[in-house]
């Protein structure tokens, strides 16, 4: 399967002063983590997960979110 055909999964958790968004490729368990700081700074980190990532994120109180929200932050269109 081509990587362009992958439907990524997106997760979000809001803390008191920052937000974490996670993109997961469910085929090869890679992805991207965005940490949005209160002043608008965005940290981007390439990630490698294991097959238990969904359970791990659920255990850590992450909720499903949309590709649109993730990509708006990724492109710096919202802060």
Q: What features would you describe in this structure?
A:
By secondary structure, this protein is an alpha+beta fold. It has 2 helices and 5 strands, in the order E-E-E-E-H-E-H. The chain has helices at about 55-60, 65-75; strands spanning about 10-15, 20-25, 30-35, 40-50, 65. It has a 5-stranded antiparallel sheet with strand order 4-3-2-1-5, with helices on both faces. A hairpin with a 5-residue loop joins strand 3 (about 30-35) and strand 4 (about 40-50). The protein starts with 8 loop residues before the first strand and ends in a 5-residue tail after the last helix.
Gist?
The protein has 79 residues and is α+β, with helices and mostly antiparallel strands. It has 2 helices and 5 strands, in the order E-E-E-E-H-E-H.
Strand percentage: 35-45%
Biggest sheet strand line-up: 4-3-2-1-5
* Low-pLDDT residue spans: none
Report the count of strand segments: 5
- Apparent shape: globular
Using only C-alpha atoms, the radius of gyration works out to 12 Å
Helix content: 10-25%
Given the helix and strand composition, which structural class is it? alpha+beta
Mean pLDDT: 93
Total helical elements: 2
């Amino acid at each position: 399967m081509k990587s362009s055909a992958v439907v990524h999964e997106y997760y979000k958790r809001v803390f008191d002063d920052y937000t974490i968004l996670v993109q997961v490729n469910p085929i090869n368990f890679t992805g991207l983590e965005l940490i949005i700081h209160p002043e608008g700074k965005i940290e981007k980190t390439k990630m490698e997960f294991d097959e238990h990532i969904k359970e791990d994120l659920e255990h850590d109180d992450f909720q499903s979110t949309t590709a649109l929200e993730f990509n708006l932050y990724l492109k710096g269109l919202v802060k």
